[in-house]
Amino acid sequence: MNNPRNSDSLLALFLLIAAVVACSTSSTSNSDLAKANKLVDEGNAAVEQGKKFLQEAEDKKSAMLQMNVRRIAEARVIAAEAIAAYDKTAEKCKEAAQKYDEASRLKISEKFKDYLMLKVKEYNKRAELVATAKDTPQALIESTNRSSFVIRVNSNNDKVNKLSKEADDLASQADKLQKENSGDFK
User: Fold this and answer.
1) In this structure, what are the phi and psi dihedrals at residue 22, rounded to the nearest 5 degrees?
2) Where are the domains of the chain?
């Protein structure tokens, strides 16, 4: 039930960290550029913290799924801990998106703004993905039998895979924009 692709995908999602700096243009003030870079750094820090919470959540989910059915009470405690870690991860994704959004509203180059808006969409999507991923441990807590648990987990895995693809697509668009406009990024 623990899909290694999902775990790897979730971890890979957080490895995509925006560390870009726009080149100054005539419409860009040094003050706004400095503020934007500071906000991007803060967003990147939130992403790094989120990665740690995600690893904790995935480790707990894996432990929960590998427990003997006779230890269901203990597995449910671990599931609750996984949910809490997923919640912290989602908060950090939202924080990163907010920082990137705030930076995009400053007087910076249009390409940098476009890039940041893609990162906002990406991290909002990642927050949604993480919120969805926590349904697997929630299913264990709420399940009354194995078959209902398996059905719910399989359905959830499909949702996580879909959201993961959407977030990865946004990250690819941002990376492509950055590569195609390297003169606008330091």
Assistant:
1) -80, 145
2) 4-14+27-180
